[in-house]
Structure formats: C-alpha cells, structure tokens
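Q: For a teaching session next week I want to show students how multiple molecules come together into a single three-dimensional assembly. I've collected the sequence lines for a complex. Could you give me the predicted structure tokens for the whole thing so I can convert them for display?
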Amino acid sequence: MAGHRMRGLCAVLLPAIMLGGCINVNAPDKPIVIELNINIRQEVIYRLAEDAADTIEENADIF
Amino acid sequence: MRNFVRGGMLAAAAGAALAVGIAAPAMAQRDPAYAAARAEGKVGEGRDGYLGIVVQPTPALQRLVDDINIKRRAVYARKAQENNATIEEFAFTAGCQAIARTEPGEKYQAPDGSWKTRTSAPPERDPRCP
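A: Of course. Below is the structure for the complete assembly, covering every listed component.
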C-alpha cells in the first residue's frame, strides 16, 4: 500500500524534476564572425613577403 | 662480365635520373582538375592563404581543395618555423601574394570576406599586404 503511494509520488515528481533541469538556448539572430587576422602585424608580413613569393614559385603545383 | 654489370648499373642509374628529371617538372604544374576548377571560378584564393570553394561544394571539389590546403599548410608550417613566424602569419602573407597573382577571370576573397572575380585591375587586398 505504502509502496504504491510512493510510486505514484515519483510519477508526479520525476517529470517536474526533469523539466526543472532544462536550459533554454536561443540561437543568435546574427551570424558569428570571427576575425582571424587581428593579430597579424604588418611588420611581420613585410619581413615574410620575399620568402612567401619564393614559396609560391617553388610550389607552383599547389598555388 | 664485371664491366657488363657495371654498365648495366650505370644504365639503370641514368634511367632513374631521367625518370626523376621527367617527374620533377610535372610536379611543378597544377593538376588538370585544379587548373580547371580555378579557371571555371569554382575555387578561389582566400584571404587567409588557403584555397576556398566559391560555388556549392561537391564531394570531389571538397577533396581537391582539402588536398591542396593540407599541402599548403605543410609548406607554411615549415617556412613559418624557418622565419620565426606563426603559420597564420606566413599563410596570410602568402595569401596576399597568391591573390596578387590571380589572373583575370579567377576568383579571390576580398578583405570583407566576399568572393570577387579578378579583372585586369589590381585585386582588393588587405591594407597590410605588401
């Protein structure tokens, strides 16, 4: 008798507990833009320029 | 007999050298599928130094682009290390040059991320490009 009532209580409480654990996540309405080049400094680019040009010529099959 | 064996070995060595000599210039050229995808504007030079897909991707196109970008990244990694720079820095610099070298009709990525078709005019490049 007591076991039956206990089971009934669980049947009521369990969905309530599960629902309480839900977190709603809303998708942002704007696309997420990640700026990848923000840390690349011009002085570094100028230093690498000559080697980069040579690299393209030496690997013409993949450029 | 010894001379015959040595002669044979020399001939084999010459043959190997010839085979390498023939293979090396072929390596320096673009794969026909890649050359066609470039000319048709399906792929373009990205601003990050990697090849990008401009049209709706197909599995074959994705494979082609991935294959080239994996090879590019390996080259960038080696060169970046030699120059005490990051892979991203070297890749970006190479991207500046690769965009500058596009031919009219080919696609490239403008600084705002959009894909443009190269005309006879200079391409729109990042202001940091040399």
